[in-house]
Design brief:
Layout lengths: L4 E8 L10 E7 L4 E7 L2 H20 L12 H4 L4
Antiparallel strand pairs: 1-2, 2-3
């Protein structure tokens, strides 16, 4: 899988009923997936958030770290504690 990158950041009109007037749409993607997000803040804040998101996605999908899944709790083992 290829690395995620910031594809674009653009200022957009705020959604109806919100008080904060600075909204941006940013697009993150790679060759397979595209993520579109709408967020309020300054352009610098949005760029930093998008960059952090890209770093987390790349870390999650492009490293060889295995995430340990928790085993489900066996309901029968809880009967001794009720």
């Amino acid at each position: 899988m290829s690395k995620y990158k910031i594809k674009s950041i653009e200022k957009v009109n705020p959604p109806e009923g919100v008080s904060f007037k600075r909204w941006y749409k940013f697009i993150i993607g790679n060759d397979i997936n595209t993520i579109v997000n709408l967020r309020s803040g300054t352009e610098k804040e949005i760029r930093n958030f998008a960059l952090e998101s890209v770093n987390r996605l790349n870390e999650k999908y492009l490293t060889h770290i295995k995430f340990k899944a928790h085993k489900p709790v066996n309901d029968l083992s809880l009967t001794n504690y009720l």
